[in-house]
Amino acid sequence: MVACIVCDVLGEKNNGTTLAANNLIDYLKSKGHETRVVCCDKDKNGKENYYVTPTFNFGKLLNKVVEMNGVTIAKADEKIVRAAIEGSDVVHLLIPFSLSRMAVKIAKELNKPITASFHCQAENVTAHVFLMNVGLANKMVYKNFYNHVYRYCDIVHYPTTFIRDVFEKETHKTNSVVISNGVNEQFFQPTEAKRLSDKFTIICTGRYSKEKAQNLLIKAVAKSKYKDDTKLVFAGTGPYEKRLKKLAERKGVDADFKFFARDELLPVLRGADLYVHTASIEIEAIACLEAIVSGLVPVINDSPRSATRAFALDKNNLFKKNSVCDLKDKIEFWREHKELIEEYKSRYKSIIGAFDQQECMKKMEEMLLEAIEMKKNETKKSEIKKNG
């Protein structure tokens, strides 16, 4: 199979979409498939099977916003995109921006099967123009995504049933498949624990951004009777780092902010006492799954706009939507009921196998092959009909 993977955003492995893209690319290559990658990463210039486009220029103000988020976004170049798609057996899209939209037009023209993953919630767009909580704005974004990309796809991949249901409610039914992006096999392997503090240590992983809502955890610990004996570790990077640091300092909360490479993160997760997932908007929190696989019990934001709450075993793993007081209560509950932690770890062991990344990538490979077969059958039927 020759697979063309179209990445409007690739770049550094500092966000879920980039990790998902690289995981798929690496897996397909490991299985002997020719994998062509369309992206705007200048460091890929000259590398075999990489087709590098220009970077999108949004203007001085918006360029700064994009840069703050640690990503670069590709600008569509028809000649480059066409060269990648010609000779490919299937075209797979990662984000429904300009590069993917150009790829749809060319793939349709060349009668290539199209698949696409759903990695971008409407709120990921509207948050940048202060409309994150405006329902009409989010609905318009979803309709735009559907009209320009997803309506043309032979198969649409959703990481969770949650985001499939959200998107299809606002648009139309798609030929869908639900496949987790998966947890890297390293997290399933034994690793020595590394404690960063003698205090009760709570870890929270993910990009520092508005929708990830790390401020809730800082405020909750500030209200706790155990404040002085609590250490927070925010594993990540992002545009809200400075304001989160200032908040922790103002509240007198002991907090570290650091980006950890995977091999560094594993022992830190295993050395922590509790994991808190504060995000109010999320398609699939692989970060939360990584923590669970590593042996941590999670406390998750019960937000209706987040798929992550599905990982809760019961009410003890959830705090009321965006509630600082309820999060404080849940943290104190786990501090005072440490004997329950081993029980919950055992219960989680029965579900984590479903998120093995190799199995998930195998399902993605099968999806691409299925799309190719569907297109072949569709073409045969069309030829039969044409010839009478």
Tell me how many strands there are.
13
Succession of helices and strands: EHEEHHEHEHHEHEEHEHEHEHEEHHH
- Taken as a percent bin, the fraction of beta residues is 5-15%
Helix content: 40-55%
Query: What value does the average pLDDT take?
Result: 91
Figure out the total of helices.
14
Report strand order across the widest sheet: 3-2-1-4-5-6-7
**Structural class computed from helices and strand pairing:** alpha/beta
Radius of gyration: 22 Å
* N-to-C span: 32 Å
Low-confidence parts, pLDDT < 50 over ≥5 residues? none
Question: Quick one: overall form?
Answer: elongated
* Largest β sheet strand count, sense and barrel closure: 7 strands, parallel
Q: What's the SSE blueprint?
A:
Layout lengths: L1 E5 L9 H15 L3 E6 L10 E3 L7 H9 L9 H8 L4 E4 L4 H12 L4 E4 L4 H5 L8 H14 L6 E4 L2 H10 L5 E3 L21 E6 L9 H9 L6 E6 L5 H11 L3 E4 L3 H10 L2 E4 L8 H8 L4 E5 L15 E3 L3 H13 L2 H11 L7 H30 L2
Parallel strand pairs: 1-2, 1-4, 2-3, 4-5, 5-6, 6-7, 8-9, 8-11, 9-10, 11-12, 12-13
